Amino acid sequence: MYITVPDVARFHYHTFGKGRETLFCFHGFGFTGEQFKILEPSLAEKYTFVAFDIPFHGQTTLLNTEWIEKGFQKEHFYALIESYCQQEGIGRFSIASF
Q: How far is CA 59 from CA 9, 10, 26, 42, 76, in A?
C-alpha cells in the first residue's frame, strides 16, 4: 500500500494486526517496515501496525530530490503521519522506531 506526501515521496507501508490502537512504525537504516512483523504475534490484538518504508528503503520512491541535501527532516515525518491520519480518520496513535 502507498501514501503520497507531495514533493517528498510516495511511501510504501505494511499493515498488520487487528487491534483498536494504531502504531506507526519507522525502521532503521538498511531495513524495511516489514521488520516490525516480528511484533505481530504478541501485539496484534492490541495494535494495528502501519510500518512505513523510509526514503531509500523498500518500495518507497522519491518524488522530488531537492530535500535530500538537508536530509529527511521532522517536517517530512509530520507530513507523512498527518497525511495518513487524515486519509484513515485516525485521531490518536503511538510510534515505534529503531
A: 11, 9, 14, 26, 17
Contact 2, 73 (CB under 8 A): no
pLDDT, mean of residues 13-30: 96
Residue-wise pLDDT tens digits, 31-43: 999 999 999 999 9
Sign of CA dihedral 78, 3, 91, 49: negative
pLDDT in tens, 51-70: 999 999 999 999 988 888 88
Q: How far is the C-alpha of 72 from the C-alpha of 82, rounded, in Å?
A: 16
Element (H, E) at 96: strand 94-97
Q: Are 3 and 11 in contact (CB under 8 A)?
A: yes
Q: How far is CA 60 from CA 21, 54, 77, in A?
A: 25, 7, 14
Q: Is 42 exposed, middle or buried (0-12, 13-18, 19+ CB in 10 A)?
A: exposed
The C-alpha atoms of residue 48 and residue 57 are separated, in whole angstroms, by 22
